Amino acid sequence: WPDAHRDPEKMARLAAGLSMLAGLDNITVPFDLTLEAEAFGAPVDFFEGQVKWPTVTGFIADDASDLRIPGDLLSAGRIPTVLKALEILNEEYGGEIPVIAYVNAPFTSIGSYLVEPSEFLKWIKRTPEKITQLCNEMYPRYAEVANAFAEAGADIITFREEGASLDSISPSHFDDLIKPYLKKMVTLTRAPRIIHICGQCVSGDLELITGMMECGAEAITIGETTSMRAAKEIA
């Protein structure tokens, strides 16, 4: 660490180690949330010599026109690293242990790592059409990455919307801004799919479980802050 973010062999070995040593029932790569943003041009600090998560060091977009999509997205940034790690894992564990690849979905990836987060959150109320434009422009690219991961050996694709919990948005915001493109991404992805949201997904009368299920994925996962009992009652 942090070499495992950039070296496919080390990425594969570290991911497999969590299953081999800790008994986890799957092997998951990558490890950080900046992969897609870096591929779109965001600068990333890997904190050399430290055990810290990589993070972006600057924000590159104010609207969709600011984003420059690489001509060959699958060769950009560390995406080739993950593709190779998936090939290694599939060759060694395919058919024995599920190999999962996750994609940081547009609302979270754009709103946390491409656009300055506090500004992005203001758009939710002031100019939600900017969020809709950005996500609609970008979701096919994230689906392209998901399908490449599946072709490289991922058995399951998880779409992570870390920033879409009730800590940041309302259920109506999820339904209006996020669910429409997540449904399209699920349809486009040629592998079993999971929708994941960290943070609070059930709070009193407010809940995101229904909206997550309506995206059409085979499964949803939630963070430990959400009551499993409450989530199961809704599901």
In short:
With 235 residues, the protein is of the alpha/beta class.
Structural features, described:
The chain is of the alpha/beta class and 235 residues long. It has a single domain, classed as TIM Barrel (Alpha-Beta Barrel), CATH 3.20.20.210. 46% of the residues lie in helices and 13% in strands. The chain is built from nine helices and nine strands. The chain has helices at residues 8-22, 35-39, 79-93, 106-114, 117-126, 128-152, 171-188, 209-213, 228-234, and strands at residues 27-29, 44-45, 55-56, 99-104, 156-160, 193-197, 202-203, 206-207, 219-222. A five-stranded parallel sheet has the order 1-4-5-6-9. Strand 5, helix 7 and strand 6 (193-197) form a beta-alpha-beta unit. The longest helix has 25 residues, at 128-152. The relative contact order is 0.12. The model has no long low-confidence stretch (mean pLDDT 95). It holds the Pfam family URO-D. One of its GO terms (molecular function) is uroporphyrinogen decarboxylase activity. This is Uroporphyrinogen decarboxylase (URO-D) domain-containing protein. Residues 1-233 form the Uroporphyrinogen decarboxylase (URO-D) domain. One of its GO terms (biological process) is porphyrin-containing compound biosynthetic process.
